[in-house]
Amino acid sequence: MAVLGIDLGGTKMALATFTDDGEKISVNVKPLGNGQGKEVGMMVTTGIETFLSSSLQEGNMIDSIGISIPGIYRHKRGTVWAPNIPGWDDYPLLEEVKAVAGDIPVTIDSDRACYILGEYWKGNARGCQDAIFMAVGTGIGAGILVDGRVLRGSNDIAGATGWMALDRPFRKEYVSCGCYEHHASGEGIAKVAREYLAADKSYSGMLGNKPSEMVTSHDVFAAFKQGDTIAKKVIEEAIVFWGMAIANYVSLFNPQKIILGGGVFGPAVKLIPHITEEAKKWAQPISITQVSIEASGLGTDAGVYGAGYLALKSKPQ
Amino acid sequence: MAVLGIDLGGTKMALATFTDDGEKISVNVKPLGNGQGKEVGMMVTTGIETFLSSSLQEGNMIDSIGISIPGIYRHKRGTVWAPNIPGWDDYPLLEEVKAVAGDIPVTIDSDRACYILGEYWKGNARGCQDAIFMAVGTGIGAGILVDGRVLRGSNDIAGATGWMALDRPFRKEYVSCGCYEHHASGEGIAKVAREYLAADKSYSGMLGNKPSEMVTSHDVFAAFKQGDTIAKKVIEEAIVFWGMAIANYVSLFNPQKIILGGGVFGPAVKLIPHITEEAKKWAQPISITQVSIEASGLGTDAGVYGAGYLALKSKPQ
Q: Which residues are paired to B56 by β-bridges?
């Protein structure tokens, strides 16, 4: 008896089976290629069919299925909006998966919801009823646990923290992605670095080794490690924004834990003490003493663990 | 049969009885004078005893009691922290009220929780499972309803929205009250006006009619109405901060309604269309189309209605 968790990303899909205690039994990662629309849907359903039949042969009955999707899951409709999968504006994933899953219950939720559920189940938010996962990758999203339940909002789009307003005045660059995301996401760090590179004609550091439009957040972190002046300015600015965002979660939610994950944390994990110092300046002074700010305990596995937890919770009793 | 709601403020206490349908049967307002510590506790318990015995004489049995307090209610301990009542750092209000209430159930919660519960019961948040009351008075707090339940946080201090970080760089003025409260609370509006008055030696408008340390937010709103230049600058800045704060609630919580109340809304109610325009710039673009931003439907009665609703919910079935 096992549950199946699926972490559907923009470029690959991870399928893993877990015992009820959260022990990972098996894992299988499939690239999605450049799939679009129904192709990706087929890859998911075929992946599940294959997994179910091989599990059956191995004598591992699957009790329930949980799926983490890279975007918004519309609970009432059972459909998915995933900005990085072309054609998935309102994709009927639940219906398609149910067609191959038969009687096995299927639960779907957004990646940010799954990250915090994964950490709650088997990561650094164990035992916390009130906790937040801040995922900083290309964009920024937050999975928020309130009293043990995922904060969903009236239409499933709560946690859109990349849109947080953290600095005046409003700039046209915020229109497409939000203020916080512009300044402190992976893509944002690269954008801010490019702005500084364009403005500083005398700069001769390592970020000038490639055309500035090719500079990524990885390059900025590598240059920061070497003491590069522009990288230092960019990362120090990002630390302020991360600290302000975390302070706002602390003041609004009074959580026990804030977990930092996503591709940027990664290299930014080393900066957590500095980010925490920044958050302390801004946050409600009692609430900030009641929270622990930590790196993800599951790293890139947070999504698949969260999907496994979704499955476990929907398992027939 | 009726429930008793009590709104304990910093300077007065309102007691009201309601039918189960939320019809107000009677109301009674008592000044607290300059009471401190146990004196205020006595006024509350005496008020309840008097009310209970007169209700009994009138044949109106009280089934349950709800109390809104001006601060933080510590649920696990039954104690109150109220910054405007000297000696109420950890005041054992539940124990004292229970001693006079006998078998009648007593429920206590923070004023901000009661505001949103009042609006949910009988005001402008009726029918909303996800709604936020932003109370802008001397300070700023938020009562937040998530999935029909008040957001409490791990230690009852969620909703401390006055501490929201909304503008870089950090300033020493934020240390005592938080960035948002410094710029946009009633006291904040007065402080910002005083800063501008001190900086503008050539100013000859109506805000100069009294010593600048006496200028209040009421004066600023009155001057704004007359087209005063400094008042205009202060209020326009406050509109930006209110819009940014509301945008952040929208992006994080995806609520159906945001209700604006407290003493400042009040005169700022007329500004809601401008504040909404500002919020639209910053917020998650889909979520902002799903929210309605409105003035309180209950005004200064929001707290006592919320207390009544607390009572109703704890009534023996």
A: none
